[in-house]
Amino acid sequence: MKLYSGPVSLFSRKIEIALREKGLSFEVEYVPFTQDEGYRPKHPVVAEVNPKGQVPVLVDGDVALFDSTVILEYLEDAYPAPPLYPKAPADRARCRQLELYADEILLRPVVRLLYRTESAHPDPQVREQRRTEAVKAEAALREQYTKLEGFLGRQDFFCGEFTAADIAMFATLHHGLRLNGPRLDAHPVLAAWHRRTGARPAFARVVAEMAEADRRLSHSLQP
Fold this sequence. Notes:
Layout: E1 2-5, H1 10-21, E2 27-30, H2 44-49, E3 57-60, E4 63-66, H3 68-78, H4 89-111, H5 124-152, H6 164-178, H7 188-198, H8 201-216
Parallel strand pairs: 1-2
Antiparallel strand pairs: 1-3, 3-4
């Protein structure tokens, strides 16, 4: 099994965590990436498998897949133990919906912070516009933190037991934190979940590897 991944790709890192949580043996190849150029030139295997030319791409024998959600569900079907989804249909659907929430709702304000990993834009108006958008994005993230605490309630994990929903939520949340998004200090329930989940070996490894990738990349994060 081989995973084509990106050093700071949250969707690729979701799959790395899932593979390690399932105890699967795999090879990972990190495709070329810079903060200013992104994933250019496109890796030929990635371009061949994914029409969008994006990681992650998983190759498992004759199976070649793209999209982190599709890959997670394939891994669950092909390698069901240990499970990353609940058994009951309603619980399974809620888990999938929470993963979707992480990928498409929580991610929206995080995306507006991505400029912090790029060189400063030469146009001062663009720089000011980005700073204004970042303030709004941080406010939106704080609102999301409150909603996530509501989803958690008194549970240790989003679906009670550890599931793919925790992988997706952690990946997106961590991406926002590494982009100097709002800290979790004012949200103790979410902060406790973040510490608990981040202490799992698969998560701790990804966090350390992404921190090292940030150090290696040509531009440090802007304040």
